[in-house]
Structures are given as C-alpha cells and as structure tokens.
Write a structure and sequence with these properties.
Elements: E1 3-8, H1 12-24, E2 30-36, E3 40-42, H2 46-51, E4 61-63, E5 72-76, E6 79-83, E7 88-91, E8 96-98, E9 101-104, E10 108-110, H3 118-121, H4 128-139, E11 144-150, H5 160-175, E12 181-186, H6 196-209, E13 211-214, E14 219-223, E15 228-231, E16 236-238, E17 241-245, E18 248-250, H7 252-256, E19 281-283, H8 296-315, E20 330-337, E21 340-346, H9 359-371
This protein binds flavin-adenine dinucleotide (FAD).
Flavin-adenine dinucleotide (FAD) binds at residues 8-14, 35-38, 44-45, 47-48, 78-79, 105-107, 125-126, 156-157, 160, 251, 253, 285-287, 294-297, 299, 332.
Amino acid sequence: MPAEIVILGGGVGGALTANLLAKKLPAGSARIRVVDATGQHLYQPGFLYIALDQANAGWLSRDLRSLLPENVEIIIDKVAKIDTSSRKVNLELGGALNYDYLVIATGSRPNYEGVSGLKEGAYSFYSLTEAERLREALRTFKGGTLVIGVAGMPYKCPPAPVEFAFLVEEYLRKKGVRDKTTIKFLSPLNRAFTIESASALVAPMFAKRGIELNTFVNIDTVDPSNHEVHTLEDEVYSYDLAVLVPPHSGADALLTSGITDSAGWLPTDPKTLRVEEQEDVFAIGDATNLPISKSGSTAHFEAPVIVEQIAAAVEGRVPHPKRSRYGGKVTCFLETGNHQATILVFDYDNPPKPPRPSVVWHGAKWGFNRAYWFTVPKGRGV
Ligand SMILES: Cc1cc2nc3c(=O)[nH]c(=O)nc-3n(C[C@H](O)[C@H](O)[C@H](O)COP(=O)(O)OP(=O)(O)OC[C@H]3O[C@@H](n4cnc5c(N)ncnc54)[C@H](O)[C@@H]3O)c2cc1C
C-alpha cells in the first residue's frame, strides 16, 4: 500500500514540500495530497511593491495546479479539524482524509480585529487587498504625519515594515511631498525590529533619512475618528496616514483541534520540525512556534529536512543525520531604498552580519523576485 501523505496549505512550505517529496519518493510508494483553502499560491513579498506602485497584482498569484506535478493531488477546501489520535483531517465542505504522514503548512494571517480601531483607522500591506487600498491612499497623500508601526508580535517578515519605511520615504521624495511629511516609525522593541545587528545598521540610516524611530511603543488601540494611535505606555501618536502591521494568528482549525500553544502556533521541535507529542506530524513555515523569522526563506530551508525524514520512513531506511536536521537557516534581503539593499543570513547559532547596503543586493532581490515562480515553490535549486 502506498503511504498516505497529506500536506495542509499550498503556500511556500506546502508547495515546496509536495514538489520535493514527489521528486524524491520512488514511483508508487506514496500518494501525496495537498489541501489548500483557495487553490491559489501568492508571492507575498510582492505586496510591498503593490503598495508603492511598483508592480501589479497579476505577477503575484498563480494557480497551485501550475506549480505541482500531476502525481500530486490538490483538494481545494478548508481544513476544519485535525484528529491526530485517529490520523484524520476533516474538511469544511465535508469528507475526511486519513494520513500516515501529515505536514502542516497553513501559514499565518493578519488579524485586523486584534487591535481595536486598526481595521477602520489604519492601512497595511499584509494582504493583496490591503496593499491595493494603501496604494490608493498613497497616490492621493499630500503630506502630513505618516505613522508606520507594528501592532503585534510575532508577524511575518520582520524586516518588512523597515523596508516599507525606507521605500515610502523615497516614494514621497519622488512625489515632491517629502518636505511636507513627518515619518514616525513605532517599534514595540528597544530597536527597529527583532534582529539586533540589522537594527543597528538601520537606526543611523533612519536618522539620515529623517525617519523618527520611536522604541518601546506597544500599540493598544487606534482611534479612527481622531486619527490617533494610543499605546499601552499612555502615549498618543496623531497621524494623517497610519500604516500598521496587524497582529498575526495561525489557522483557526489548528487552535480548535487542540494541537497548538495558547497563541495558536504549533509547538515544534526546532531541529526535526516534528510537532511535539504528535506522531508523524510535521510543521513548516509560519505555522510553527519557533523563535525565528516567520518568512518564506525559513520554509524554504525547512522543507528538505521534513522531506528527508518522511522519505526515509517510507523507504524503510535511517534518515541522513545532517539532512534530516534544521539548523535555523534563514536568508532574506532588506531593501533600504535608493536602489540599495542588504542581506541577512543567519541560523540558530549565528546572528546575521549584514553587509553595507548596495545596488548589488537590491539587484539580487529583484532577480529573486523575478525567478520565484520558476524556483522556490517548484523545488528547484533547493
Ligand atoms: C508584505 C510581506 C513581505 C514579505 N517579504 C518576505 C521576504 O522578503 N522574504 C521572505 O522570505 N518572506 C517574506 N514574507 C513572508 C512569507 O510570505 C511567508 O512567511 C511565507 O509565505 C510563509 O510560508 P507558509 O508556507 O508558512 O505560509 P503561506 O505561504 O502563507 O501559505 C499558507 C497556505 O495555507 C492555506 N491555508 C491557510 N489556512 C488553511 C486552512 N484552514 N485550510 C486549508 N488551507 C489553508 C492558505 O490558503 C495558503 O495557501 C513576506 C510577507 C509579507 C506579507
């Protein structure tokens, strides 16, 4: 009997895992099924460029079918419940899938209800619709106070709000309204974002570009009628335009299935990526509780580790000792505006040492953006 492998989510982690398994497993040894709520795969880093009028939406979305080989089945449905004791996944439209191996790749989603007034009072670039809404607001922005901030941790792509600050500063300069605009960046930490060495690089650059960095700012509520951000520290930031990263949540079905921690993230072994206390269940990408960036790059480096363990089990062999362990590797670019970027390469033991921003890294980022559909989700170059 072929092994039943079920992958929940067809985003970065899910599509990549399915492709790698299909390539690695001997023909006929497994049946691979991917369940996805929409059947569309989104390139989320592109939301930033949509908001800043540098790209259009057509580039960001592909039919999941076009990214997976024919021998991978796709089920377009929402996961309703996971029952790990009977190794079964219930779907919202009905029906249930039995599994021998389960990979949970349901990602994270912005939770606009997580902060009172956020949805009505602020913009964001954390979904395609929101990025398009922000693009329209920026097109008509005539200057004033622009507040950029993080309204809850953790959130995906920790450098993204910093990148937005640099890029919007440049955008407003080119539009001729920079001298009429005050830019305030609100961070809940004692620095610009989670990664210390990169924040140290960013702080003087913010100062040079006139972006005011406000630290230890924990956003409590947004008052849409008075255009104010209120903080837990009892401070008030007035704004003409607010761009806030919403708090994030995992998929509801995971929380209600009782397999997450209280915040909704899957307790995951940092090396094997197995969900703790569950047999043959793996977690990848944003859905985990791992203390590293929720980023596509994380999922990219995690996928081969899960694939090696499942393939070894299906083939009845011992997993490769190194290829079956994740060391926390993440590689991501950080755009700093003016056609420059830097790169952050790190793992569990080694923090990044970002090089001085240059046109080279900006070019590399755009090369990656253009190559994405031919590489990452298809498992090429992994
Ligand atoms: C503005 C922005 C910029 C970013 N920039 C970068 C960057 O430069 N570099 C980088 O590495 N990362 C970046 N990211 C982060 C990156 O996009 C995510 O971390 C990555 O997509 C996570 O992969 P994933 O597979 O865990 O989840 P996702 O890619 O989000 O996929 C999750 C999938 O699960 C499906 N799903 C969810 N719930 C259910 C359910 N109940 N039933 C069935 N299916 C379900 C969804 O439909 C989706 O297809 C950025 C993100 C944003 C928003």
